[in-house]
């Protein structure tokens, strides 16, 4: 089935690896980029691909509200949305919060509140969490705390807020859809909210993974991250937090396994507190 995908942050390194993979599956992609100067680079990614590539020049930093994001969704009419945008440390703290928190949350809310959008995937990172999960070592927790409080405090503040909005609102929509239209005949058409959480991004070939309940400190190639996005979207019923680093397991098999096991690495978070955090935004 052909899908119409809105890729927010289409000029990023992961997105440029991802775009041909999506098009190769005959999925149609609207790549949202910040400036017209980036357009030629993106258009080249669609050459010879069966899927249709469109380019939308619209800066994520200009999206200030759910209503702003809703206008873009109405223009593109996607059934899947991928959030892969980021300030990249440019523009200081204010720009990081504007893009990685405010615009990300706006697109998350608008997507989840749009019935025709069936999947929303955000690219986060391993240490984006408030609680220490039961499978982390003391060293894992210490390293995560250092990253989140000393190295990338503003980025952490932005990403955890966006992750929590996705988690709370997607679970609420899933609960509503389960009541009204539960899965039948083995087909799960309920909403899928996905937070893909790689380790430190590196260049290199795509390969196998270690996925699920893993510690921090691992690395994930950008190529593997792009492949993981495709695998998560292509796997029916894949939803929740997926922690993925380079390893030995076949990537597609890993995503399918985690989905079949309903393994969600958000499960050790305090969901009630998470709802309070989201309500306060």
UniProtKB/TrEMBL annotation:
Lineage top rank: taxon: Eukaryota
Record-annotated NAD(P)-binding domain positions: 9-166
Ranges of biased composition (kind: Basic and acidic residues): 272-281
Stretch list, region Disordered: 261-281
InterPro entries tied to this protein: NAD(P)-bd_dom, NAD(P)-bd_dom_sf
Family statement: Belongs to the avfA family.
Official protein name in the record: NAD(P)-binding domain-containing protein
Organism: Dothidotthia symphoricarpi CBS 119687
